[in-house]
Structure formats: structure tokens, C-alpha cells
Amino acid sequence: MELAGIHHLTAVSSRIRENYRFYTNVMGLRLVKRSVNQDDVSAYHLFYSGDKKGAPGNDLTFFDWDIPREVRGTHSITRTYLRVNGEKALTWWKTWLEEHGVVHEPIQEIDGRATLFLEDPEGQRLALVDDGGAGDPHEVWEKSVVPAEYQIRGQGPILISIPELRYTDMVLTNVLYMRQVRQYPHPETKKDTIYVYEMGAGGAHAELHVAVQPDLPAARLGAGGVHHVAFRTNDADYHDWVQRIQSYRIPNSGEVDRYWFRSLYFREPNGILFELATDEPGFAIDEDVETLGEKIVLAPFLEPKRAEIVANLKPLD
User: Fold this and answer.
1) Of the candidates 81, 13, 24, the residue with the CA atom closest to the CA atom of residue 49
2) 3-state DSSP call for residue 316?
3) pLDDT-derived band of residue 136, with 50, 70 and 90 as boundaries?
4) Radius of gyration of the chain from its Cα atoms, rounded to whole angstroms
5) Which residue from 74, 58, 127, 40 is spatially nearest to 268, judged by alpha carbons?
6) The whole model's pTM is what?
7) Distances 1 to 120, 177, 233, 237, 242 between C-alpha atoms, Å
8) Do strands 262-267 and 256-257 pair parallel, antiparallel, or not at all (unpaired)?
9) Are residues 20 and 108 in contact, defined by beta-carbon separation less than 8 angstroms?
10) Which side of the chain, N or C, has fewer Cβ within a 10 Å radius?
11) In the prediction, which pLDDT does 137 show?
């Protein structure tokens, strides 16, 4: 039983129309699922993907909450890496971001990979990283504004910040079977160390990077911040993972059926929200692949309230 890598990452936006334009018209991602937060149906839950079908490992998702900007700090997910193939792709992206007025830093080498830091319009910290074409197969979305050879191929690694490593390490290694494989200085605060944990076969798409930053204040979730990160499990192991988390007496959500995948939520010892999510059944269970994301789709248990839910949502287009 092992995790295969990053499944998805969910962040917060208070300007969802601007968010939609940025991630589709600038980042070239496809909106593969236009739905609502199943625990707060007044808010959108938008799923963007660099993969035509929205395969696990590609999905960057957002809750639409009207809240203040994030207060940055530790006890939080601090940067989302998006993978591209080759340094030529990074050079293309640098020019593209400049043309669109996107805040970014020069291309630099971080942990042995060419990397380009940037921020979205609400200050969410992103990075484009050259993974050399490794990771899971990527299906090109032919309608993207980004040429096929430069498109985002998926997520990973994900960077989190915590003040103390010991107990988080115990959960990552003893409970989740991750492996600590190396460390490197934090590129923004050289005195701090980042520890790299691998899942499955490893590689950028299957890494969690853990920055230990005891001198930072605690973060406060807000727009431009990240709500949680999800890790991939196959369907066959899902119930076993639930039992394993419960056997360690870690407070958790229990089994949650999100219709497009099944989930389990819990917080690691420094308070960051983790999710384990299944690969199946996927986004094509209720929509044709060619028209993913074009209309509002609700999980079956929400369908009886469709008219009320849709009436309260903002127009995106």
C-alpha cells in the first residue's frame, strides 16, 4: 500500500471571474469541472487541469470564498509547483508571463531543477518547474492558448511550511509510507532547510517538500492561500487507508464520497489539511470529455437543489 503522488491541490479565490480568466487565458489550463463546494454550496468549486481529461495529478482547484487575502506564514502550504518539459518551455513561459504582466522571478535552479517562481493575481505562490518530461502521461488539450510542447503537465512538488519537523515526519514516514530522500536550503530564506519526501516511484509529481521555519508566524487562510493538498491512492487501497489513519487515532473525516473520487481528510501534526483521494471514477463519469467544464455539474445528492444553488452563483463567462 503506497501513495502514487499528488492528486490535486485546492486553493481559495475571492475574485473567481478573474481567477477563471487567469488560469484559462494565461496559464492555458482547461476548466474540466464547473461545480460547487459540496460542504458550502454557495461557493463554486472549479477544477482546472493541464490534461485534457483532468487526470489525477493535474488538477488545481479553487473554492470561491469572499474572504480577505491570506496572511502568509508557517503551518501552511506555501507554493504549488506546475511541471513543464524542458528548459526551452521555461524560457517560453518567462516571455509569455512578461507579455501578460504576471509577477515572476528569473529562472533559477532549485533542488537540481530549473524553476520559475510566479504569483497569480491574488498572490498565490506558484512555480513552473522543468521535470524533463517525467511523471504520468499527459494528454494535450488542443484548445489551450499554450502551444502543446509548452503546456503544463501536472502538479508537483508541493511545498509546505511547518515550525517543527519531528511529528510531521512521523506521520509522513510511519503512517503514509513516504520516504525522506534529501534536503536543500530554502531558496527564499537560506537559513531554513527543506526536506524532500517521496511517494511511490518518486519524481517531481510524487514529492512533498517540507520547509522547517520556526521563526515565522502562523499563517491565516485567505484568498490567494491554499486550503489543502490531496495525495493519490488507488481504489483498492482506499478502505485500508481509512482504517490505517483511524488505527493511529488521527482525527479524520471518515470516508467521503465526492462522486468523481472518494476522499479522506485529516490534519498532520502542524495543522496542515491533507486529503487522500482515489483515482477513480474520474470527471468523465457525468460529462463527455469534449465538453468538460462547459456547464455547472452537481453531485447527484445535490441535484434536487440545482435551481436554488445555480441561482446563487456568480456568472463566470
Assistant:
1) 24
2) coil
3) confident
4) 18
5) 74
6) 0.96
7) 36, 8, 9, 7, 12
8) antiparallel
9) no
10) C
11) 84
